[in-house]
Write a structure and sequence with these properties.
transferase; 2 domains; about 200 residues; LbH_SAT; seven-stranded mixed β-sheet; alpha/beta
Length: about 200
Amino acid sequence: MRNALKKTLQLITLPLLLPFLVSNQRSVIFSDVRRWSNIYNLTNQNDLNNLLYLLLQKEFRSLYYYRIHQGNLFGVIIATPLSFIFKKEENLYIWCKNIGSGLFIQHGFSTVISAKSVGDNCWINQQVTVGHNGVGNSPTIGNNVAIRAGAKVIGDIKIGDNVIIGANAVVVKDIPPNCVVVGVPAYIIKRDGIKVYEKLT
């Protein structure tokens, strides 16, 4: 019964395959699909079926439209009218020149992703702000970075690979790789798996 319902729901998003089929961003979109599928344990279907299922979610559609708009003009032309029918998450804003594959956006409500770049396999929760400090200088986010609910990452700073930014933390300075930070202003509580207390410099 559940599988039948899932297949029926997938038919709803079939029109959204059109921009995908003509886009030159298919590879990175499939990378996103595999990441989201692993997180949601959608392991019993192929990538295309999982894409159709994930397109039921507004957060994924927001990322999908971002990918399509990073690609060729044909995909953009087809996706634009579809976006009025299959709407993205209204309170999720993505302004970024480059986002690596496998970005996962959990909930996505009231979230701003405005970075110079975001690395591969990052995880961003709801009510997160990644943005500039008022003069156009935005962060650079590394690979495998997790930014938890309510966190703020502001200014021309670099977030290293394998960093976890705790809920509601405020980050305005560089974070080295392999660190966990929390607090306002953020400070390091774990580096390379070892508990520490270090201020960001």
